[in-house]
Amino acid sequence: MEASESFLAPWTGFFYWVGVAGVAYWTVLLLRYLRYIVRVWVTGNPGAVGPHLGAWAVVTGATDGIGKAYTEELAKRGLKVVLISRSQEKLDQVASDIREKFKVETKTIVADFQDRETIYSKIKAGLEGLEIGILVNNVGVSYSYPENFLDVPELDKLIDNMININCISVCKMTQLVLPGMLKRSKGVIVNVSSIAAVSPTPFLAVYSATKAFVNYFSHCLNVEYKRKGIIVQSLVPHLVVTNMSKLRKASRFRPMPGWFVKYAINTVGLESETAGYPYHELWVWLIHMLPRWVVDESATRLAVKSKYNLLKKQKAN
Ligand SMILES: NC(=O)c1ccc[n+]([C@@H]2O[C@H](COP(=O)([O-])OP(=O)(O)OC[C@H]3O[C@@H](n4cnc5c(N)ncnc54)[C@H](OP(=O)(O)O)[C@@H]3O)[C@@H](O)[C@H]2O)c1
């Protein structure tokens, strides 16, 4: 008995301190995580976006879904808004609702981002002389349903459109707006990417790759210009109830666009890349924790299921 006690004696001290170090490490991690939750998702940064950045906001894809929700939230904060999308009728309707509800000036520009040749000179003319404080590069398109790359209907068209709308628009709009922000040493650019940028998404290959482009572009620009007073944020949401997602019913994990934007806008200045919504951030965390093959396998199962459901719905209509 005495012999074993004397044998273990030096080790009990060692294990005791390993235990203390472990508990201290996990306590620090937990406290840092709690601080992050309170700072980003409870208090947020509601003062970051407002007319102090510049009188005008510009939103691409402003007539529906997430873009419309940004337009409304920005107008609510007292910014005048330039709305850009394809249909003058829809633009007029949304602009007039906003003017009536929030008593702010609006401007509309009709542009189809499929076209990369002519629209940017038109948009440049439309933005001339405006003091732009925030640009939301929101416009984006996805597949009608998940599919193997070579089996995507009208593949050539899809490749061109997706690159023009999802990637070129982000670069070109930034090229138009950033110089004015730099002159005033302030401004915010929010680029709406997707969780498909965080996790390569099989069966949505072109979409996933275009969103990774947006994510990398945003990250680089944020580093290049943050010392000059410009914030560039990449949003990587999971599913939101919009025409694109073809979801109709909201849930905790699948918010309505207005609810999503209320959270996302308060992360500006706190997070340069974020899912924008606490429950979506859990997905991002899970993707980083799980082995790659598990994520690929579940993405494949989900793609097969949603292709089946979407084609069934299409046939029924
Ligand atoms: N919904 C989601 O679950 C989800 C998840 C992750 C990321 N995102 C991203 O969020 C962004 C917005 O998606 P959303 O779901 O809100 O889409 P949405 O509901 O389909 O709305 C798209 C908006 O863009 C406009 N638009 C579409 N094609 C256009 C074009 N060629 N030129 C100009 N405007 C065009 C539409 O207006 P008109 O039709 O009148 O032109 C509409 O205002 C996208 O970048 C998407 O990739 C969405």
Automatic annotation (TrEMBL):
GO MF assignments: oxidoreductase activity
GO cellular component: endoplasmic reticulum
A GO biological-process term: steroid biosynthetic process
InterPro entries reported in the protein's UniProt record: NAD(P)-bd_dom_sf (IPR036291), SDR_fam (IPR002347), VLCFA-Steroid_DH (IPR051019)
Entry keywords, A to Z: Endoplasmic reticulum, Lipid biosynthesis, Lipid metabolism, Membrane, NADP, Oxidoreductase, Steroid biosynthesis, Transmembrane, Transmembrane helix
A Pfam family that the UniProt record links to this protein: adh_short
Domain of life: Eukaryota
Associated pathway: Lipid metabolism; fatty acid biosynthesis
Spans traversing the lipid bilayer: 14-34
PANTHER family associated with the record: RH59310P (PTHR43899), VERY-LONG-CHAIN 3-OXOACYL-COA REDUCTASE (PTHR43899:SF14)
Similarity field: Belongs to the short-chain dehydrogenases/reductases (SDR) family.
UniProt name for this protein: Hydroxysteroid 17-beta dehydrogenase 12
